[in-house]
């Protein structure tokens, strides 16, 4: 059975998603949305994302993508590929890829749905969300809000995209005409 793959990310100006192993902001409305999307589901993440969490996400099946299958991640399955992770996921519904950069790159080639939180503010960061071909995606939901981050009113958007039906050609993550880099 082919599993439905969803990508989830919170992205600031410039495509920033992380800094020194952490999210550079605290945005409670985004955390609530993340919980609503992923609760009682399977979440898949890279090893760096796993380590940044400090342990498994409660009420979810946690799968860590790692090329070392002997690696022990207490409270999670360790799998070497997204395809294998989707195949062994025991929770019903879609599999949510929650980061970092490499798992997102792989997932963006096969995902059916993309859940983005766009944070309209600059942050220092060392991890960026991968570029993707915007022509392959159709926006189906947008919700705009504002919430203070570090005392500064900050505008954000919850966006949901679905993959357009039958896109010919490669599903490459390399930038090309129509590519979105989330740079501002």
Description of the structure:
With 184 residues, the chain is α/β, with parallel strands linked by helices. It has one domain (5-180): Dihydrofolate Reductase, subunit A (3-Layer(aba) Sandwich), CATH 3.40.430.10. It is built from four helices and twelve strands, in the order E-E-H-E-H-E-E-H-E-H-E-E-E-E-E-E. The protein has helices at 28-38, 47-53, 82-88, 101-108; strands at 5-12, 16-18, 42-46, 61-65, 77-79, 95-97, 113-119, 127-128, 132-133, 137-149, 152-163, 179-180. The strands form three sheets. Strands 5-4-3-6-1-7-11-10 form an eight-stranded mixed beta sheet, sandwiched between helices. Strands 2-8 form a two-stranded antiparallel sheet. It has a two-stranded antiparallel sheet with strand order 9-12. The radius of gyration is 16 Å and the shape is globular. Mean pLDDT is 90; it is low at 167-177.
Q: Strand tally, please?
A: 12
Give the oligomer, counting copies of the same chain as homo and different chains as hetero. single chain
Physical arrangement of strands within the biggest beta sheet: 5-4-3-6-1-7-11-10
Strand content of the residues, in percent? 35-45%
CATH architecture: 3-Layer(aba) Sandwich
Q: How many helices in DSSP terms?
A: 4
Q: Which structural category fits the helices and strands?
A: alpha/beta
CATH class: Alpha Beta
Task: Write a concise keyword list for the protein shown above.
two-stranded antiparallel sheet; 35% strand; 8-stranded mixed beta sheet; Dihydrofolate Reductase, subunit A; 184 residues; one-carbon metabolism; alpha/beta
């Amino acid at each position: 059975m082919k599993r439905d793959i969803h990508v989830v990310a919170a992205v600031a100006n410039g495509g920033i998603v992380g800094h020194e192993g952490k999210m550079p902001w605290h945005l409670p409305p985004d955390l609530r949305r993340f919980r609503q999307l992923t609760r009682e589901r399977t979440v898949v993440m890279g090893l760096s994302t796993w380590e940044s969490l400090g342990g498994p996400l409660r009420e979810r099946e946690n799968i860590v993508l790692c090329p070392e299958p002997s690696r022990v991640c207490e409270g999670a399955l360790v799998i070497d590929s997204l395809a294998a992770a989707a195949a062994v996921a025991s929770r019903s519904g879609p599999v949510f890829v929650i980061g970092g950069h490499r798992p997102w790159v792989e997932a963006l080639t096969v995902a059916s749905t993309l859940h983005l939180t766009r944070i309209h503010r600059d942050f220092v960061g060392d991890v960026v969300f991968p570029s993707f071909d915007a022509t392959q995606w159709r926006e189906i939901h947008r919700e705009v809000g504002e919430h203070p981050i570090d005392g500064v009113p900050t505008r954000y958007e919850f966006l949901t995209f679905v993959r357009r039906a039958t896109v010919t050609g490669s599903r490459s993550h390399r930038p090309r005409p129509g590519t979105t880099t989330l740079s501002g």
